Amino acid sequence: MPIKCLRLPLFSWNLKSFSISRTGSFSFTNATITTISKSLHPIIPNGGSCAQTSTFPTKSTIIHHLRNDRLDEARRLFNETPFRDPPLYTMMIAGCTKLGRINDALKLFDEMPLRDVVAWNSMIKGCLDCRDVETAWKMFCEMPERNVVSWTTMLNGFAQSGDIEMAQWLFEEMPQRDVAAWNSMISGYFLNDRIEDARELFKRMHRRNVISWTAMIDGLDKSGRSEEALCLFGEMLVHGIQPTSTTFSSVLTACANTFSFGRGVQIHAHFVKSGFVFDAYVATSLITLYANCGQIDNSLKIFKEVSHRDVVICTALISGYALNGAHKQALKVLLDMTKMGIYPNNSSFTSSLNSCCALEALDTGKEIHSLITKLGLDGDVFVANSLIFLYAKCGVIDDGLMIFNGMGERNLVSWNSIIVGCAQNGRCMMALDLFEKMKLAQVQPDEITFVGLLNGCSHSRMLDKAKYLFELMKQNVSLNLTIEHYVCMVDVLCRCGKLDEAEEFIEHMPMKANSMIWLVLLSACRPYNDAIEVAERAANSVVEMEPNNSAAYVLLSNVYASVGRWNDVLRIRMIMKERQILKQPATSKGIIA
């Protein structure tokens, strides 16, 4: 009976009393709602206003809950709503996938009585956002009809997941391509390091918009071709394409990466003349540009000019201060962020922890660690790596090991940080054990790994193990032996008293020895009375390369003094005086008050 009463007025409503949106949803005017309410009043008990309260006001409330990530409240109201059109279902599905609740989204999609192409596209995008490419592809294949958005969404999904071949196949199979599809394919190529393919596709485009140019500029810059990106920006201006703030942000980042201060200033001026207001991305790029070019005061000016500061801008200033050695100022920005109610992100913490390392500020680092834990970012691999490095640098290697052991995800930097940290803190056996575990985890070591291991062997005087590791590295064609590795081997030979072998090792190096490697040998000669000739040859080798290197004279003088050859000590001092070579004072790594 109530259903019949609700249907009768529908035939007499004026079509002007409601409007249809682009997405297919409809909404009634206030006057119409009042009319409906009055016509239903005598029929529904207690002056029923169920249509008024459960349908139209509820929809706006559902939207409000979804915008604020209150999914359960939105779902409760949705279940109570008698009129659920496809747009409302689509909004609910988007709300579920936004929070990663893909199963709830799929359940809602299955419940839909009518599915339009917008709903299908939303569900596919939701699956891709939740990294379920397989389900997204299955749904794409089941779609009764597809539009260009369907194809582009699926293309983006494959590109994001690394299946660029499938993305390329989809692009070629598309029945029609708009400029957005071309732009997506270009971005996909860059995302998968197919730079030349992106360039060729850009050349093939019959119609380009500002997004096309910006995608190319940003992609080239992120691929290490910042100079090409800047040239392309100049070509874009010649074609009369008006840049957007996103374009300016990408170009300024390219200037920062190439340390192009002059061009960066010109683009900054052009941006201001164009009447743009600084947004977060442009301000961040400007802060980074000036910081990279050593103009940190200008970075601070930009920071102060921005009325709305967010975590991205604050992090850029923290990184800029750290890059310019102003580590105390960097840590102050982090403190100011928390006072303003801006929550730091993983990049903020990584840069701040690096400043703590530079200052060896262990107590400050522990306070930051506590904040990281409270914000739930201790599981982030980059933050964890920075914490390991900090604790290792400050000699608290057990805390570093605790963090490493608790990591759910580890990368090469994680393994290197803990291996080098153990080696530097006298835990060579533990470093070697971690190296074996690293191989079992199928993580390929790099040059830094072996520098850490060889250093550990040197401090522990484990000559045979060092030789084994050195040979292991020589056999690995993917690794490059650098001067640092040879310095480590000379050091371990010297620490084990093998001075003649160390000198022979230097003479047969495939590269020219630098002053550092000769100084290692020279420094090791002091405890041995029979090493005068080795010391003299090492000192002469250093002086030939660097005539004013005071360390060579001082170390040789110390060797002479250790065996009582005071006339030679005096001679060395006279030579230093004649050549005006001053002994370099010792330095301390303590924090300057």
From TrEMBL:
Keyword Repeat: yes
Key words of the record: Repeat
Stated name of the protein: Chlororespiratory reduction 4
Source organism phylogeny: Eukaryota, Viridiplantae, Streptophyta, Embryophyta, Tracheophyta
Residue spans of the PPR repeats: 85-119, 147-181, 209-243, 310-344, 411-445, 446-476, 482-516
Top-level division of the source organism's lineage: Eukaryota
Listed GO biological process terms: RNA modification
Pfam families in the cross-refs: E_motif, PPR, PPR_2
Organism, as annotated: Stephania japonica
Molecular function terms from GO: RNA binding
